[in-house]
Amino acid sequence: MTGALLWGAVAGGALILGALVGLYIPIPRKLTGFIMAFGTGVLIGAASFELMGKVEVETGYSYVIFGFLIGAALFILLEMVIIKKGGKERKRSKEKSEGHSGMAIFIGSIMDSIPESVIIGVCLIKSNTVSWVIVLAIFISNIPEALSSSVGLRKDGYSRKKILFLWTIVFILTTLSSVFGFVVFKELNELYIYLVSGLAAGGIIAMVASTMMPEAFEEGGPIVGLLSALGLLCSYVLSSGIL
């Protein structure tokens, strides 16, 4: 449980970091695109090598596949709702955007971050150790999300103090969500863990394709293809235990 608390806090800490960058440190959009591209590769690797790639019982594959399809479909449905509310650019770092709603982006960020943190706890059950790939992937994806939302909230009139307070609440929720995933799913049949892993993998791939990849290419240009490949390679190395 302590490990789930610790690594949930590490991944959630990226939300605070992203918020601070968005509020106080202007960074080049091209650099943001590069970070997003690398994170895209890491996330794809996390879904492929960690969440879907480690199935120890034959019947587990059907649970993973079913979960994957449901996770992807569920993410897209939620994405459609968020878009209608003005939060379609929650993974983006643009300071000016038509239809930009800071609170909608913030709510969308919560919807992304809590399930992701639950997966950290679930992965601790599967392998009895932290998945560096999962933690790194969530950490990288959380930074631009909090950055974008913080910029939007400032444009909507929120003070820096209030914005940081909101992200602190989300940080606490995401940390506790990791513990929740560990405690609750520890008592369930292993097949349900495969189902949840598939759900997470499907949601991650759908999220990457619809939010992160378009932003990365738009901001960084063709070089992001190489950076994404390096991110995927990083996932492979960490998952294989080479280092």
UniProtKB/TrEMBL annotation:
Keywords: Cell membrane, Membrane, Transmembrane, Transmembrane helix, Zinc. Its main location: membrane. It is found in: Cell membrane. It is a multi-pass membrane protein. The chain crosses the membrane at residues 6-24, 31-49, 61-83, 104-125, 131-151, 163-185, 191-211, 223-242. It comes from the Bacteria. The keyword Acyltransferase does not apply. The keyword Transmembrane helix applies. Belongs to the ZIP transporter (TC 2.A.5) family. This is ZIP family metal transporter.
